[in-house]
Design a protein that fits this description.
Length: 436
């Protein structure tokens, strides 16, 4: 059998890396300025962490999607399907409720779900995740949503839609679920198997159905937003008022429900155009009660996650310029066997200042220049018998063709000057892209 990557997993090749880091760096910058600290939790946890967090009404769809296995010690472990449970497990384990409140944490990394693979839906995918733990203030919900929009804006992504809703308090949810049961049970036979299962365990999730028949059945029904008690309603209005005050655009979506059961009140999603059926870049909501469900104190929280693959897809569809891979400053070409070690040695020294590469075998000038060009270098440095005798390198600017013979001892200063000039250009470009 020819070995290949497992279905639903993807290699991230060198050419993909600048784009990828562009997204992570934007998140780090935007969230960092808001005082959000980075946390890294393990990729796998005891299965119980996720089982407790999804709760009793756990949708079997969610359960089935988890990669759970026994390790050799007989421990039941799960590859994280999302970040919140693990981050809150860490919050409890490290007593973060004693830290200055709220505790604001972000993470990024892989998550795993045994899904039906399609565009935008993979079995290993990657998320950027934010949690604000320790406050029930609606301004925190609004700030979380605004930060999400800020990250997308810093990336240059336009045409995204924030959909804001509320799933209410547990009592609102219970009332709404009872309403849905009454309305849908008489038609249970007509529902898809998934929706029938959801109607039994967590009726609200029927609203998420993709099946056209199911959608037609729920279309005329009331939405969670119609079932808010006065406090939940006031919370929703306060979140909306903050977003209005800051000029963060959003649409009210009365029918938003989140995949997991722990959400309370605020629920939201951000969608992008042009990336196909899986248009949700990310979403999140408030999860008061989840920390205590995981064995911690009763502290409220709000969070979101976005899928990095989907954001990248949206950036490509929107033709947003992302940084291209950078080549070396200098590519050294040894033109005889004696120069091979010396060229590599010069490269080693200059790397204190800039990215420098070299050919590993003797190259004729023409071929060496072609190698330098293919590496994406700005300059080629030719080193043959004559250059060695004179203690120089013949440096060629590959864009302009200008050539000069630089003494070896001047190379470090030359590299410092060229590298810092290049850095200034990049810094100006990235400030410009932040400002748009
Ligand atoms: P969720 O935790 O289901 O709300 O997912 C949050 C975001 O993660 C989604 O909006 C997607 O951008 C991304 N995401 C979730 N599941 C997948 C998947 N299987 N493949 C790729 N991205 C995903």
């Amino acid at each position: 059998m020819k070995l290949r990557a497992v279905k639903g997993t993807n290699d991230r090749l060198p050419a993909d890396q600048p784009r990828w880091h562009h997204v992570i760096d934007a998140a780090a910058r935007v969230l960092g300025r808001a005082g959000v600290q980075e946390i890294t939790t393990p990729v796998f946890e005891f299965a119980e962490v996720f089982e407790r967090s999804v709760g009793e009404a756990a949708d079997l769809v969610v359960q089935k999607e988890m990669y759970t296995f026994d390790d050799r010690g007989g421990r039941r472990l799960t590859l994280r399907p999302e970040f919140t449970a693990g981050v809150l497990r860490a919050f409890v384990e490290h007593g973060m409720h004693t830290w200055p409140s709220p505790v604001k944490l972000w993470s990024h990394g892989p998550a795993f779900r045994a899904e039906n693979v399609q565009r935008g839906r993979y079995r290993q995918f990657h998320q950027v995740n934010l949690e604000i733990v320790g406050t029930a203030a609606p301004v925190a919900d609004a700030e979380a949503i605004a930060l999400f929009a800020d990250v997308l804006r810093a990336l240059g992504l336009r045409g995204v839609r924030v959909a804001l809703g509320s799933v209410g308090d547990p009592s609102d949810r219970a009332a709404y679920n009872a309403y849905l049961r009454d309305a849908l049970e008489p038609h249970a036979e007509a529902l898809s198997e998934t929706s029938r299962e959801r109607l039994r365990l967590n009726p609200m999730r029927v609203l998420d159905a993709k099946d056209p028949g199911d959608r037609a059945l729920v279309a005329p029904l009331k939405r969670p937003l119609d079932f808010l008690n006065p406090e939940s309603r006031a919370h929703f209005d306060a979140v909306a008022a903050s977003l209005d005050a800051w000029g963060v655009p959003y649409d009210v979506d009365p029918g938003i429900v989140r995949g997991l059961d722990y959400y309370r009140r605020t629920a939201f999603e951000i969608h992008a155009e042009g990336i196909g059926a899986q248009s949700a870049l990310g979403g999140g909501g408030r999860y008061d009660g989840l920390v205590s469900q995981l064995g911690g104190p009763d502290v409220p929280g709000i969070g979101w996650a976005f899928g990095i693959e989907r954001v990248l897809d949206a950036l490509i569809q929107a033709e947003v310029a992302v940084p291209a891979p950078e080549g070396p400053l200098l590519f050294l070409v040894p033109m005889d066997d004696e120069a091979v070690t010396e060229a590599a040695g010069i490269a080693r020294e200059l790397r204190a200042h800039a990215r420098v590469e070299h050919a590993y075998v003797r190259r004729a000038a023409g071929k060496g220049l072609r190698d330098a060009d293919r590496s994406g270098a700005r300059f080629a440095g030719l080193l043959g018998a004559r250059e060695r005798a004179e203690g120089v390198v013949q440096v060629k600017d590959l864009a302009s063709g200008a050539e000069s013979r630089l003494p070896l001892r001047d190379l470090p200063d030359w590299a410092v000057a060229e590298a810092s000039a290049a850095q200034e250009t990049t810094a100006t470009e990235s400030t410009a892209s932040d400002a748009v």
